Amino acid sequence: MTRGAAARERPVLVYDGDCGFCTSSARFIERHVPVRAAFVPYQHADLDALGVTAERARHEVLWIDRAGRVGGGAEAVGRLLTCAGGPWRALGTVIRVAPVSWAAWAVYRLVAINRHRMPGGTAACALPADRRPGARG
């Protein structure tokens, strides 16, 4: 987790706007999860102001809270759900606590590697092998 540049009015979810699956997932969350956050494709985000690098934004979904703390991948999903409150808070909390967090990371990596095969996925969703979560350089 890193700290973003400045406090903001509401949290921000940064996702890959070129990926159909990622965009569909972000839109689904906007419609069905009562979280007050900005949803921004990294291609249109001021990443410097958010305190994240383009490399990280290409690699994983990011959640930047109001204080500027950054979480990525499964942690970002858990933090988004926690922020939504109600029953979502419980789910978000469970996702972020071991041993469930280990399984959440494994599922996140599996989905990220195969997002071009997921509903709404396109060829643009495929990550090069060296950029896939868990890839070894």
TrEMBL record:
InterPro entries: DCC1-like. It holds the Pfam family DCC1-like. GO terms for molecular function: protein-disulfide reductase activity. This is Putative DCC family thiol-disulfide oxidoreductase YuxK. It comes from Actinomadura hallensis.
